Give the backbone structure.
Amino acid sequence: MTTQTETLDPAALAGKPEARILQNYVGGRWLSAQASGLLDVTNPANGQILARVPLSGKSDVDAAVAAATAALPDWRARAIGERTQFIYALREKYLQRIDELAASITREGGKVLSDARAEVTRAIEVLEVACSTPMSMQGRILEGVSRGINTETIRQPVGVCAAITPFNFPAMVPMWFLPFAIACGNTFVLKPSEQVPLTSELMCHILGEIGLPGGVVNLVHGAHDAVNGILDNPGIGAVSFVGSVNTAKYIYRRAAENGKRVQALGGAKNYLVVMPDAVVDKTVSNVLGSAFGNAGQRCMAGSVLVTVGSAQQAIMGRLKDEAEKLIAGDGTDPKAALGPVISPVACSRIRECIESGVQEGAELLVDGRRPKGVPAGGNFVGPTILNHVKPEMRVAREEIFGPVLSVMHVDTLDEAIALVNRDPRGNGTSIFTENGAAVREYSRRIEVGMVGVNIGVAASPAYFPFSGWKDSFFGDLHVHGWDAVEFFTRKKTVTSRFFSAGETGKYFVEQGDKH
Ligand code: NAD
């Protein structure tokens, strides 16, 4: 991202196609923001300016919430089958336009095209699960809680729901929320990352093409001010957030103070534990994919490798050799295994982290600080491995969010479990072994919400909850799976009897045998 904030002056930008100022999508129309400033949206592979994103403020959020509120009665009154038809249509469009969506992700976010396509595929998977909302939104009924009296619990929409999303999955993360929210009868406001607003813009164009009624989904560009506008707006009933730990804590606190339902997913530091009996070649390829895929900018990225006992001798040589073969480059280059990191600021921070590891005594086994042959003007860091890292070092404490793998060595599984559990975050972890007893022990004792067994990135499929723990998640109900409908609905319990059916159920008592 750029980082220069400028005062909004459309006249000064006229005639520069790259200076196209993005608009908010409100009530089905594209509107200029009443923004206080602009940021450049850049291609992280070469620094080219793609557009300029307005930093919307409270009044822009208020307009979007007003549109979502106005759309709510009609949308909620539609049959659930009618609402889910829009999700089917969106899924079809995403399938047809997967290449266009992937190209947008790569252009503004940098990831290699194969990763970008995989991201769209994950978004499609969520859409498919949301198509089953007529099943998952069903309530419960119990006949005869008292004579002639039934009680039923039904689920109703929360109202206007909002999502605030991060830069690293511009197509997938908004889809963790949007399809469930609207299928359940809510209307929706999205505030995407200001670093990658273009894929959300494309999504709203597609929503217009499928004829989604205006106001059901609204898009507000911006950063802190737009977020605060959402958190403080009394018209919003639920807030979903995905981003770094500190922002997640802030969002959770402020939204809850304002009486909103919140799910706030934070950052991560994910450990990969390799046991002595792990299958070496498969383990190495999974560890590399986990650590360096998407240039390490995944909340499920393997960040710390822990070898147990003789696993150190078995895998370290191979890991180094294979990591050195991975090429960083423009995401559109089929030879590139990893693309750039999101911004020059992120690039400098990652290099500083690596430097700090070296200063604090780690061995720089693979050095990606200045990768060769990468395009000029891009934010490139190559695969980096720091060996003999200690838990006290900065690289072990901070979420680096770049292609850097820290390696620690311990003697026993108990020590590995203790290392993982001392981390304040608990998003994902994986163990590599063929030993069922070790798997059972690890899965039972580990304080992490998503566990992989011989799987590098153990992200839950959309029909299960994405279930981080500790500082990786603030809230009660997780993302997708059964939790999604729980989050986007309120339960209402109705207890009823009908006097014409006979006094306190007399009708049933008398007629029961005849029916
Ligand atoms: P971020 O926290 O900087 O930004 C996320 C969103 O919050 C953006 O929309 C941004 O505009 C807004 N924001 C940022 N700072 C804010 C502030 N001070 N006040 C109000 N709003 C603010 O995160 P990011 O850099 O875009 O994304 C990377 C982070 O997201 C990493 O920490 C990663 O682990 C995490 N992440 C977590 C998950 C998960 O499932 N747990 C998934 C994806 C990403």
Notes: Residues 164-169, 191, 193-194, 223-224, 227, 242-244, 247, 250, 265-268, 299, 399, 401, 427, 466, 468, 472 surround nicotinamide-adenine-dinucleotide (CB under 6 Å).
